[in-house]
Design brief:
By secondary structure, this protein is an all-beta fold. Helices cover about 0% and strands about 55% of the residues. Strands 2, 4, 5, 6, 9, 10 and 11 form a seven-stranded mixed β-sheet that branches.
Length: about 120
């Protein structure tokens, strides 16, 4: 079992930045790839970014504005978000799985999510 807890969300003006954290506990965190997803009200969950278990590979849906990193010593994955737009408003969730993927169903463990609201 892996437990994930997201933090760092909040209200930010358009053009601002946030860093989300995904803290893990439980089984060896460094064995798992981690992905970030977001879901706006009434919309389906969408892929944001993913990182391999050792950090050697990353992929982002918007590599200009969103980057993902991890510190396995701290059991934490980060999502760095810059130049935020109102359409980025959503609940952001992290998930752990066996391998990197853009598909939510490929991840086994999920956090509860953190709300990000971008004001215009």
């Amino acid at each position: 079992q892996v437990q994930l807890v997201e933090s760092g969300g909040g209200l930010v003006p358009a053009g601002g930045s946030l860093r989300l954290s995904c803290a893990a506990s439980g089984r060896a965190f460094s064995n798992y790839a981690v992905g970030w997803f977001r879901q706006a009200p009434g919309k389906e969950r969408k892929f944001v970014a993913t990182i391999m278990n050792n950090g050697a590979y990353t992929h982002s849906a918007d590599s200009v504005r969103f980057t993902i990193s991890r510190d396995n010593a701290k059991h934490t994955v980060y999502l760095h978000m810059n130049n935020l737009k109102p359409e980025d408003t959503a609940v952001y969730s992290c998930a752990a799985g066996e391998y990197v993927s853009t598909t939510p169903a490929h991840y086994t463990y999920w956090g509860q999510g953190t709300q990000v609201t971008v004001s215009s």
